Amino acid sequence: MAYFTNPAISRESLKTILGNFEVIPEDHRLKLWMTAILQLPNNKTQYLKLRKAGQKLDSRVKLLEDNKTGNEAKVCNQVLKSLLAHCSSLRQFNHFNLADFVEPFSGLLVSHELIYFEVMLSILVNWCQHWFDHIPSPPYTLLSMLDIILLKNHPELYKHLANLGIRAIDYAWRWLTTSFKTIVDPREWLIVWDHILVNEPNFMYFIPLAACKLQSRYLMELSTHSEIMELLHSKIPLDANSLLKEAYQMCDATPVELQLTQMHHFHPLIPGYYPTLTPTDLITFRSTENSDVGNLNQLLDEVQETAAEVDNIIKEGVALRRWIMNQQEKLYIPP
Question: Which of 16-25, 112-121, 228-237 has the lowest mean pLDDT?
Answer without folding.
Answer: 16-25
